[in-house]
């Protein structure tokens, strides 16, 4: 059996597990754990608080500091309201492509890792090779955030992380972070005929939005040309504004959902600092002069660091040697790579499939891309040993 044939069979099994983020990933994680243990890996399952989800961390080779970590996530996005040509949880092959939910994002990479275990196990005699397969990446990198806290407090940890998100097998060393917030504005409800007798929460929410739009423009000017990467600046998006009941009612509550995609951590500090000053010195005092019970509450849904391009990056340089590439790209979408970078690991991204196919109906990965991923892992085994 060829490695590609083995990979296709493993991917068929992985796609059959419905690991949409709202559901358990334990069956899929158990399947992966069995294959890793059969190859001689030491496997840990790290459950979340609910017990219905788990990260998997496994090691081939010696129990010591350093080594390379191959990383991916087991959850997938929903298929609801998508028009698929075939069952999204049954792997279907057409014209050299494998269709199914998660084929490119990112069960294809996990399958390539599992199909290459013989080579990787033989190569890990002197230096460890680690595997990190997480839950809930698609809803805020919840699993990876838990995993980095585990790794942070251990005496040993991997030195490098290779994240197999779909890049068309291009080497990527930089991407935006993702910070998501929900802001609740509490005012005083009343009759629309007397606006001055109430505090309209929607009006204050729109003033907050206006400040966000000012900051969005400031971010464009903030990045000097020499420090930009593609995309060239931190972005802000207004996702949703909820509030009000009728034309003639003063809205007593409103909620704003927004996100920021920072290219560097300093931009996050800049925006959050400017908002705190605006709310504390201007917006909230005005609301409370009209109604003592008025308030503004910010909920942090998630703050995931981006991957910051660095002159020295051992993981990127290793990928250059494995793929033959001589330069790295940058992408706007986020991954778990920045979280690993934050705890001192060098990190880079390279995986089969195209992000253009992710999250869509008829998601697919090509057999050619899987073959390239397997080839990269085979070369890793040869170099690692």
Automatic annotation (TrEMBL):
GO biological processes: L-arginine biosynthetic process
Glycoprotein listed as a keyword: no
Residue span, Peptidase M20 dimerisation domain: 174-284
Keyword Metal-binding tagged: yes
Protein keywords: Amino-acid biosynthesis, Arginine biosynthesis, Cobalt, Cytoplasm, Hydrolase, Metal-binding, Zinc
Gene3D superfamilies: 3.30.70.360, Zn peptidases
Stated family: Belongs to the peptidase M20A family. ArgE subfamily.
Protein name, entry field: Acetylornithine deacetylase ArgE
Organism: Celeribacter indicus
């Amino acid at each position: 059996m060829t490695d590609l044939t083995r990979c296709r069979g493993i991917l068929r099994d992985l796609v059959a597990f419905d690991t949409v983020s709202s559901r358990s990933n334990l069956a899929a994680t158990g399947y992966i754990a069995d294959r890793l243990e059969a190859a001689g890996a030491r496997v840990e399952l790290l459950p979340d608080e609910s017990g219905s989800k788990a990260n998997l961390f496994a090691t081939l080779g010696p129990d010591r500091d350093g080594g390379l970590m191959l990383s991916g996530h087991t959850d997938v996005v929903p298929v609801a309201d998508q028009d698929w040509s075939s069952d999204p949880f049954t792997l279907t092959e057409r014209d050299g492509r494998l269709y199914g939910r998660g084929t490119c994002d990112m069960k294809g990479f996990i399958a390539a890792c599992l199909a290459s275990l013989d080579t990787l196990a033989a190569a890990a005699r002197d230096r460890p090779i680690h595997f990190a397969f997480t839950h809930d990446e698609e809803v805020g990198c919840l699993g990876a955030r838990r995993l980095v806290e585990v790794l942070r407090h251990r005496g040993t940890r991997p030195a490098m992380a290779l994240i197999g998100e779909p890049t068309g097998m291009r080497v990527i060393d930089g991407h935006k972070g993702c910070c998501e917030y929900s802001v609740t504005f509490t005012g005083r409800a009343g009759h629309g005929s007397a606006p001055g007798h109430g505090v309209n929460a929607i009006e204050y929410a729109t003033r907050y939005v206006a400040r966000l739009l000012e900051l969005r423009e400031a971010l464009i000017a903030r990045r000097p040309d020499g420090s930009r990467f593609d995309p060239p600046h931190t972005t802000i998006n207004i996702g949703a504004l909820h509030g009000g009941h009728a034309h003639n009612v003063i809205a007593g509550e409103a909620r704003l959902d927004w996100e920021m995609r920072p290219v560097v951590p300093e931009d996050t500090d800049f925006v959050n600092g400017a908002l705190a000053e605006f709310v504390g010195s201007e917006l909230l005092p005005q609301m409370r002069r009209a109604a003592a019970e008025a308030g503004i509450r910010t909920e942090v849904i998630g703050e995931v660091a981006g991957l910051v391009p660095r002159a020295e990056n051992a993981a990127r340089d290793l990928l250059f040697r494995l793929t033959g590439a001589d330069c790295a790209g940058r992408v706007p979408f986020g991954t778990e790579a920045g979280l690993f970078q934050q705890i001192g690991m060098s990190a880079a991204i390279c995986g089969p499939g195209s992000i253009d196919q992710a999250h869509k109906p008829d998601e697919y990965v090509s057999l050619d891309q899987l073959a390239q991923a397997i080839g990269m892992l085979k070369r890793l085994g040869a170099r690692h040993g």
